[in-house]
Design goal:
Distance between the termini of chain A: 22 Å
Largest interface: A-B, 53 and 53 residues
Oligomer: homodimer
Low-confidence stretches of chain A: none
Chain lengths: 306, 306
């Protein structure tokens, strides 16, 4: 039996998982990204870690089908090249697949992290069976990925799926992306915190905000309903444009629970066109934080042809 | 040499074209849809017309590769079935392909009219060479079609591409589709006329509004710039979500010219994410009113596998 190594590289952490061919995670490790000074050190660190991870598990290279790696930015998954990483400086057109593969002498496949989460939810999570699906993650930012006709759709320059940067108003606050009134500018988690602080005249955590809403606190409910409405409006555009089978919602903010989901679903069902609205299923992501490494493993098993 | 018959069925007119295999229109005829009372009479009328059209051109059935037909509503193009036509009552789940094919003894293929316009622009018009393209028509309504990875993308229930029903504000006027603040609700041609009437305190045609704008009239320019901005905001969502190579804009309203196009393009280029905005080309439709029948002919030549 061959194993697969799935890696999810973020701005602060690198998560590594050892998966079997049914995508069950047999072991996992988390490294601190900031322990490595710069790109070269980070790549070498990942390579060293993979090699020691393999030997610590008494495995040999022949026991490993390959390594899959998700990164937070536009990735040419066919060419194996990282175009750039918006939140990790110094990565521009890095042929990471060949560099890493050379170091570890194993097949390597790379892709965008939101794409891999989407792939995982499509293959074994909440979007399975949906030939056309949209997955979004609600967190510090709002990421997304698209399955079109049963395949990951990456876009012409590997930047498709940016649901977080769909404007939901003609005019509105400036976003980090230089756009205005982007969904993320209203519902990124720091925005929710500052909105909640305004309402409660005090700092309040997202967990507390959810707990209050679940107990029926009117102010907390109002905050989540408003966040849900804004999310639902961007998704109304997605539903009318793409007529998908399924929308999967994950990420830390999605843990707010039923009040948020009901508001998202009510908005879509009442505002999207009847045929599209009746057909689309709104579901919570099933794989949680593991979606990234599971998607990376699926990419390896499909030899990059996801 | 075989010919193809392309038909574009609208709420008021039916356009028929005789095309050669290079999609050149050799002859064309327009019928009045309202001359036929009801669905059965209309289908029989089309069948009769095709048969007389063939004999008038001294052709025989063997000279005709097939008949392609575009209709204004959701069409199951694989099953050859009209789901419904929002503006033509009485059409519900009509297996038009088999009915018509039986009557005329020729292969028939059917699809949504905006999809066929999109297919035509992709194969021989402004979107050729663009594997990922979005085509929109600006007229009474705002229609759209999507090319994804070189193929028409129809959506899970044949209703993808509804760019006109993407909301551009959280709140806003009620649309015919029961949504709020849909793009079409602001830029459908009757909306532009009533907006212009407000500005000029008088009825003014779209042609006059364009002519005034082109002569530098500040009020007329402002109307078109605002219409362009609203269109550009919906397209910013499309660009960030789909990362297409190309957006093609057609329909009667698109004849307003450079002021409108500049405003659309400026909005997309300044508000969409840098990578997507730099890559996408904004182009005027090249095939004009013929896009529908040309697309219908292409569908026939591809045996419905577009």
């Amino acid at each position: 039996m061959q194993y697969i190594i799935g890696i999810d590289l973020g701005g602060t952490f690198i998560k590594l998982g050892l998966l079997n061919s049914r995508y069950q995670i047999k072991d996992r490790v988390v490294l601190d990204t900031t322990d490595f000074s710069g790109k070269g050190a980070l790549i070498q660190g990942i390579a060293d870690f993979i090699i020691s991870f393999i030997s610590e598990h008494n495995l040999q290279r022949k026991d490993i089908l390959g390594v899959g790696l998700g990164l937070p930015g536009p990735i040419d998954s066919q060419g194996g090249c990282v175009r750039y990483l918006p939140n990790i400086p110094g990565w521009n057109n890095v042929p990471l697949r060949s560099i890493l593969s050379e170091k570890i002498k194993l097949p390597v496949f790379i892709d965008n992290d939101a794409n891999l989460m989407t792939l995982a939810e499509y293959k074994i999570g909440a979007a399975r069976g949906s030939a056309n699906a949209v997955c979004i993650t609600l967190g510090t930012g709002v990421g997304g990925g698209l399955i079109i006709q049963g395949k990951l759709y990456r876009g012409s320059t590997f930047t498709a799926g940016e649901v977080g940067h769909m404007p939901i108003n003609e005019d509105g606050p400036l976003c980090n992306c230089h756009g205005h009134a982007c969904l993320e500018r209203y519902i990124g988690n720091r925005r929710i915190l500052s909105y909640a602080k305004e309402v409660f005249k005090n700092d309040i955590s997202l967990e507390r905000l959810s707990a209050l809403a679940n107990k029926g606190n009117a102010k907390a409910k109002k905050v989540w309903q408003d966040i849900g409405k804004k999310t639902g409006i961007a998704l109304t555009s997605v539903v009318n444009l793409l007529n998908p089978d399924c929308i999967v919602i994950g990420g830390g903010v999605a843990n707010a629970g039923k009040i948020l989901f009901d508001s998202i679903e009510d908005t879509i069902k009442s505002r999207a066109m009847a045929t599209q609205a009746q057909h689309v299923k709104i579901a919570k992501a099933e794989l949680g934080d593991d979606g990234g490494i599971i998607g990376a493993a699926i990419l390896v098993k499909q030899k990059g042809l996801a």
